Amino acid sequence: MQGQSQRVIEAEHLSFAYGAVPILEDVNLQIEAGEFLGLVGPNAGGKSTLLKLMLGLLTPQQGRIRVLGRPPKQARHRLGYVPQYPSFPRDFPIDVLNVVLMGRLGVGAGLSAVLGTGFGGWRRRDREIARRTLLEVEAGDLESAPIGSLSGGQLQRVLLARALVGEPELLILDEPTANIDQRLEGEIFELLARLNTNLTIVVVSHDIGFISSYVNRVACLNRTLICHQTESIDGEMINTLYGEPVRMITHDHGTDDHEHGQSTGAGAHHARGVTPHG
Amino acid sequence: MAEFLNALSTHAFLQQALIAGLLASIGCGLVGPFVVVKRITFLAGGIAHSVLAGMGAALYYGYDPLTGALAAAVLAALLIGWVRLSWRTGEDTAIGALWAIGMAIGILFVSKTPGYATDLMSFLFGNILLVPARELWFMATLDLVLLLSVALFYRQFVAITFDDEFARLRGVPVELFYLLLLVLVAVTVVLMIQVVGLILVIALLTLPAAVAGQWTRTLAAMMGMAMGIGVLLTSGGLALSYAPDLPTGPTIILLAGALYLISAVSAGFLAKRRARRAVRSMNEHRDG
């Protein structure tokens, strides 16, 4: 929009609290166009909150956030969002194509973007784009399946298609692989890496080791931003992030073309690990 | 039944009753599915019952009760919508309060109006046999309003009932469409009051849609089927109640309740049988 700046996200001294509970403190984060940023940190470290601030679903008490050079609410129709948990009832009577088509709402300009054009139904162009996007995420065969009949991995692909179908400039994903197995997790991230060639991506994860083989920068968040860099993640940094010693191991899954860190520590809920690729 | 068909061809009041049932069914098909999938039956019940305040006031001041009902329903819908959007917690207590307060106001007005007893009964339980022709026109107008709103904003209504957070991110004015949906519920309630009365409205609004939901896989199909079931129930109830001279509204509702029960039981049975068959064919596949 503004030409001189390629900055997709610009957060300055961002602080946020739910009631009296501080969640984010003085967060400064810049994301350039074309980046694939992994946002990691412990549970309740503020990752989802930071995403919601980017999406304009929450307003910071302090600081400033710009998305594509604008206030989040004005930019959010140019974003794609994949939530951590599907926020809809699984028994809703709707098929996959129509779920994906909802991502076409708000595409276009002016009043027609808000109220939609045409009488009720979708235009043929919208349907074509939705079908093409389903093929892109390898879910073309699911088009007429009821949304409630999908497996976790299939649902994740459909939610990704719903986020992509609006042709976003920035894709935001909140733990996109939290509810699916590791093989599918790899497939989804391969797909994201492909999409990254013409799309800026921010992905939240609690699994540093896994995502660092795909993303080109990691930002670690535990109330405030502890690190954001491209170098490999060392044990000391993870200790700072999680505030406790962490045992690190690497797993070789054999079939995967990458190695994958696994959760080990007794009682530790979040998976941690290191990547051999650095 | 023969007696009913015979009477139908000769009595204008029966023909009008049948048409009233058809007109109410259109609303039941267009709006009922949204109430069911969005799970706002309790909200709709609150709107329906607080309508009595408007009917009572209209009666007392000498206006047409249906006009009063429409005004009260829309007001109640906006009030309940506002409570829902801004209170989040304690919402059902607030709706329950509006529900009862609306009825209390209505009953006070009706009791201060001379000759209230019959009117009150027909408000509460409907009287499809006493629908005058001009009220059929009024109902047809309400249907037109519903049809236009749903046709124009179908995608937006689906989006906010399916996933309101995502709809908001796509720039849909979620609060506006939520309030509009509740106003449509209010309009539908008024549409059905003549047929089954305001106490029984909630059953006619939700049961045909719930039955349809057990047998369809898209919202549009659910709407069509709910409309058909509405026609079946209103005409069936009218026919059944005619010969033994039963009140029509409760007959329609009992028919709806029976259909819902049968549908729920058989849908559950079929789902179990499908699962058993799937496991059996899996076993055969493995063994063979």
Automatic annotation (TrEMBL), chain A:
The chain crosses the membrane at residues 96-122. One of its GO terms (molecular function) is ATP binding. It comes from the Bacteria. Keywords: ATP-binding, Membrane, Nucleotide-binding, Transmembrane, Transmembrane helix, Transport. Residues 9-248 form the ABC transporter domain. PROSITE patterns: ABC_TRANSPORTER_1 (PS00211), ABC_TRANSPORTER_2 (PS50893). The keyword Protein biosynthesis does not apply. Residues 253-278 are annotated as: Disordered. Gene3D superfamilies: P-loop containing nucleotide triphosphate hydrolases (3.40.50.300). InterPro entries: AAA+_ATPase (IPR003593), ABC_transporter-like_ATP-bd (IPR003439), ABC_transporter-like_CS (IPR017871), Metal_Ion_Import_ABC (IPR050153), P-loop_NTPase (IPR027417). Belongs to the ABC transporter superfamily. This is ABC transporter. It comes from Halochromatium glycolicum.
Automatic annotation (TrEMBL), chain B:
It is a multi-pass membrane protein. InterPro entries: ABC_BtuC-like (IPR037294), ABC_TroCD (IPR001626). GO terms for biological process: response to zinc ion; transmembrane transport. SUPFAM superfamilies: ABC transporter involved in vitamin B12 uptake, BtuC. GO terms for cellular component: ATP-binding cassette (ABC) transporter complex. The chain crosses the membrane at residues 12-35, 42-63, 69-87, 94-110, 140-157, 177-207, 219-240, 252-271. It comes from the Bacteria. It is found in: Cell membrane; Membrane. Keywords: Membrane, Transmembrane, Transmembrane helix, Transport. CDD domains: TM_ABC_iron-siderophores_like. Pfam families: ABC-3. Belongs to the ABC-3 integral membrane protein family. PANTHER family: ABC-TRANSPORTER METAL-BINDING PROTEIN, METAL TRANSPORT SYSTEM MEMBRANE PROTEIN CT_417-RELATED. This is Zinc transport system permease protein. It comes from Halochromatium glycolicum.
